[in-house]
């Protein structure tokens, strides 16, 4: 199955969209992976190949994930953003990542999950939000996550209030 997906991706992307691997990252074109661990990145490198399926940006300095942050990598299935000092996930930050099945946001500084923070992640199965500062989750924050079967929120500031 994986081979079929890779063949589809490789044949459906025009050759004119050839992009080189970001200089500070390690890319594996056979596995369609990009690894940029601990490079003090402040934004997502714009030269990541569109056909990338696994992106590891662990231990960087991304701060704020704005709307459309990953619009140039629509085929991602796995995204690792552990320890990236993320404090805010804006509405639509992950919009367009309909193939994403695993998202790791552990060890960040996120304090609020907005209604559309995870909008567009219709295939997401695993969401890791451990060890953040989450104290507020807006109604509907997880509404678009229809395939989700694992949500991990350990070590946050959540408090359940009876009204």
Q: Got a strand count?
A: 11
Supply the number of helical segments.
1
Q: Runs with pLDDT <50, length 5+?
A: none
In the CATH hierarchy, what is the superfamily? Ribonuclease Inhibitor
Keywords: Glycoprotein, Leucine-rich repeat, Repeat, Signal
Protein name: Chondroadherin-like protein
InterPro entries: Leu-rich_rpt (IPR001611), Leu-rich_rpt_typical-subtyp (IPR003591), LRFN (IPR050467), LRR_dom_sf (IPR032675)
Organism: Triplophysa rosa (Cave loach)
Question: What can be said about this structure in brief?
Answer:
It is built from 1 helix and 11 strands, in the order αβββββββββββ. With 163 residues, the protein is mostly beta strands. The longest helix has 11 residues, at 2-12.
Structure in words:
The chain has a single domain (1-163), classed as Leucine-rich repeat, LRR (right-handed beta-alpha superhelix), CATH 3.80.10. It is built from one helix and eleven strands, in the order H-E-E-E-E-E-E-E-E-E-E-E. Strand 1 (26-28) and strand 2 form a beta hairpin. The longest helix is centred in the N-terminal third of the chain and has 11 residues, at 2-12. With 163 residues, it is mainly beta. The chain has one helix at residues 2-12; strands at 26-28, 33-35, 54-56, 64-65, 78-80, 88-89, 102-104, 112-113, 126-128, 136-137, 150-152. The relative contact order is 0.12. Keywords: Glycoprotein, Leucine-rich repeat, Repeat, Signal.
